[in-house]
Amino acid sequence: MTQTISRPPVYKIALVQFGLSLIIAALFLILNTEAALSSLAGGLICAVPNAYFMYKAFRYTGARHINLVLKSFYQGSMWKLLLTAIGFGLAFKYIEHINLFALFGTFIAVQCVHVFASKIANL
Length: 123
Prior knowledge:
This protein is mostly helical and 123 residues long. It has helices spanning 11-29, 33-57, 66-94, 100-111, 117-121. The radius of gyration is 17 Å and the shape is elongated.
């Protein structure tokens, strides 16, 4: 008897994060373009590393691949942290008139998507 556990649809979480980043940036566009750019950067600084982590973490499944699963989770976590730090560094270096409220507000809002992750994955 073979029983398999299917991979969770985590790609839906990444899509929601990218979509939310675009929506919030569009709302900040009402204020000004600098705020919109800062907002988009904040959303992408959160969404891109999370998407990479989800790709790495859920690459392998099953008890036979437990070593690969653990290795992928550790590598994914490490790269997520590194990509987030690089993203903030690039934002502070290349966005001339950075709006800190828009940058960090959108980053936090997109990060909060994880609170609803189980609901989103089951859509």
